[in-house]
Amino acid sequence: MARVLVVDDDDAVRLLVRRALEREGLRVEEAPDAALALAAFDRTSWDLVVLDVSLPDLSGLDLLRQLRVVGDVPVIMLSGRSDEADRVAGLESGADDYVVKPFYPRELAARVRSLLRRSGARTRPSLLEFDELTIDTASRQALLGGTPVELTAREFDLLEFLASAPRQAFSRAQLLQRVWGSSSAWQQESTVTEHVRRIRRKLGVEADQSRWITTVRGFGYRFEP
Amino acid sequence: MSSRAPGVTLGSSELARLDHDLRGPLNAILGFGRLLESEELTPDQRECVEQIVGGGERLRALIATAFGTL
Prior knowledge:
The structure holds two protein chains of two kinds.
Chain A: E1 3-7, H1 11-22, E2 27-31, H2 34-43, E3 48-52, H3 60-70, E4 75-79, H4 84-92, E5 97-100, H5 105-119, E6 127-130, E7 133-136, E8 141-144, E9 147-149, H6 153-163, E10 170-171, H7 172-180, H8 190-202, E11 212-216, E12 220-224
Parallel strand pairs in A: 1-2, 1-3, 3-4, 4-5
Antiparallel strand pairs in A: 6-7, 7-8, 8-9, 10-12, 11-12
Helix pairs in contact in A: 1-5, 6-7, 6-8
Chain B: H1 12-37, H2 43-67
């Protein structure tokens, strides 16, 4: 699974980018300033960076130059400035793409995927197959016996997340965090329960709480292949 | 942003700053609105989201007219 680092001091922008990219099956982590972004690079490698031009402790362009010294990770600059001079400065500093706010989440996600394809980043296997159930992560379709199952975006995210780690149990709080990018502190865990109920109904296994998505009593759920 | 008496014209750098500052909240309105549109919603919820996104797009157009950008 490709890993993306989002560097922006605006909480709303980071959340928006996270939501847009996690829907694409990408793993996203956040850094609110340049220092934490550099620390994230010290800790591990990244497949792509979404980087705001204006950061509180260092300009995004200066951070980009530092990243370019150590490697050629693909970088998409985000900016609230649309001047030609700003775009040119961003691209000449080594950015691979330049996106001006306000941006459409799906368009940003498409640009990210395009850059990842060109850079040959690790991508997840596009097909998860379990008997008659097939989950196509590229086209974001679930097929049951070859017939498409009509899932909402979030239902698909949840099914894909669980199926990507068969037999691993996740608590409802973990699922809220990993699939919703949320927390049980401000979103009820019953949200997870309700989505699981809907997925089971759509997979035709509502009465069988051990088929595909198994209930782990007092904890959460795991996927049984 | 500094406060000014009515009728005082903003300089180009102040206009650029205002343009920049308006993009943050506009990005949140349009971005989260678009994300929400792709969720499974009741008809009432969808109507509300369409109003949010429609209002955001009108605001985007107004800002584009005012600043000649976006």
